[in-house]
Each structure stands twice: as structure tokens, then as C-alpha cells.
Amino acid sequence: MRTSATAITKKMAAQLVHLPEVERLSPACLRILGGNPGKFSLQGTNTYLVGTGPRRLLIDTGHGRPSWITALKRALSDEGNVTIQSALLTHWHPDHVGGVVDLVRHSPGTKIYKRDRDQNVSMSEAGAGDWLDIEDGQVFQVEGATLRAVHTPGHTTDHMAFVLQEEDALFTGDNVLGHGTAVFEDLQTYLQSLKKMEGLVTGRGYPGHGAVLPEAKAKVAEYIVHRHEREKQVLEVLGSAKGGEDGRGDDATSRIARPDCWTPIELVKVIYKAYPESLHGPASAGIVQILQKLRAEDKVVSENDDKWRLQDERSSL
């Protein structure tokens, strides 16, 4: 029986730690949840109010859910009627920029920053034409907090991480999450960004989704190892025969009949066989990224991007 998306979402939610709607994480960092929990957004998008003085920085704005702007207003009031000097958007995805409309309505003087400011954002959306660009290495400062922007493409081309210098901490955006692994647009670029992020701080990580990372450096290193393990799995399955519990066939018949081409979804069904079928689609997109990287390294070849085999194999079809 196929498991429903609702059942999967509930099961995943049960595996996640509870996060309060508003929670102080450090003297200079307050997390406000976006009010949009889900299969991919986990407990919801994390937005962060950063600083200790009367003017603060905001990282991301959630999906535009009414509960988020209500929680943000309450937090601003509880902090002593502080205002938001600038909002820094980690990337263009709707669950990170969707609340800009409500933010600007509440705080018209707030400056909105995003890398490649016009990319993937309608010029009519929340006055996007007035948004400011974020430069790699740009510094944003308020009382109690200095943030240094670092361009870390991979999840998206405009993705930015931010180093909180006072805490030696890192806002990781969606490149690194508080639970599970992240999706990416380009694997090679993503791995390069992870290597860059690994050397940025030794303290905590504040992710775009999920709980605080006790050690950002260790979690980034874990992500890098995981990606290499997935790459190794793809190569192993491409070198195996279809059929059998582990995807291999060792007898003479299997070797003679051995097909040398695999589709991405066939690879997914072997590598992700322990995962719900509803997750195979997103997993397939990641497998395609791995295959494209391996092709660029001359380790695999493809037929119309649909069937793949190892570079040194010869088709027996």
C-alpha cells in the first residue's frame, strides 16, 4: 500500500525536535519560525533577528504566513520595540522571501538585500526593484552583531551564508539543514561551497530549517562525506547487474545477461530502497546531479540523459 503524503509528513514531524515559535538562541540571536512546517521545510523556515541594540538585522522572511509576521511583531515589541535595519535573504526560494511583503508593510524603512537581486523575483513582488544586492564579503553591522556575507552557490546560484563574527557562528541557509540533507541545483558547485563553509567558523550553525547545529564545521564535514558516499553508491550500482536483493548478480547467467545501462529512477530504487516511494522523485533529481558530475569527470557516459553506464563498459545490447 502506498503511504500518503500526509502520513509521511506526520511521521517526519514526529521525528523532529519541537521548536518554539520564537526562541532566544544566544544574546544576539532570536529565531522566529515561518509557520510553514512540511516535508521539506521541516518545522518551518527559520528566520533570525540578530543584534542587541535598538536596530537589528533580519535573516530571511519565511513563506508569507500570517503567523510569521504576527510572531515577528510580538518579538520586536518584547525586545523593547526594536526596529529592523536590514533584511538579508539567503536565497530566492519562496519560503525565504515570501514574507517580504508583510515585512515592508510593517517596516517601510527596512532595506532588503539579496544576491543577484532581480534573479527569480518578480519586479512587482514587494517592490523587488528597490532591493539591494549582496556582495561576497559584504559586512552588515548593528549593535552586538557583525555579519559577513559569503557567496555559497549550490542549493541555488544566489545562495548566501552569513558569519556571525561575535559568536564564530554560521547562518547556513539551505546548504546545510538541522535535520537530514539538502537539495542542490549543481553538485560540483555545491561541494565547492561546502568546502568553503567548512573553514568559515568553529562555532554553532544556524540553519535555514531545523534545530541549531552544535558544531557547524562538523556538520558541514558530515555533508561532504555523505555526498561522496552517495557518489560511490551510484558507481557501485552502475557496475552491478539488475535484479537480486543487493542489485548484483554473481552467477554466469547474470554476467552474460548483464545490462550496462541504468535510468536514474532505477538507481534510486536500489540506493533509496529503504525510503518511502513518495521521496523517490526528489531523490532522482539528486541522482541526476551525481551522474552529471561523474560524466564531467569521464567516469560515466549517458544516452540522452536517460540511460547511464560506466565509462569503461561496452554495451551488450
UniProtKB/TrEMBL annotation:
A GO molecular-function descriptor: hydrolase activity
The keyword Metal-binding belongs to this UniProt entry's keyword annotation: yes
Species this chain originates from: Apiospora kogelbergensis
Cofactor or coenzyme needed: Zn(2+)
Family, similarity comment: Belongs to the metallo-beta-lactamase superfamily. Glyoxalase II family.
UniProtKB keywords: Hydrolase, Metal-binding, Zinc
GO biological process: secondary metabolite biosynthetic process
SUPFAM superfamilies: Metallo-hydrolase/oxidoreductase (SSF56281)
Superkingdom to which the source organism belongs: Eukaryota
Pfam families: Lactamase_B, WHD_BLACT
The Metallo-beta-lactamase domain, residue ranges: 44-209
Protein name (Swiss-Prot/TrEMBL): Metallo-beta-lactamase domain-containing protein
Zinc recorded as keyword: yes
UniProt cross-references to PANTHER family, sorted A to Z: ENDORIBONUCLEASE LACTB2
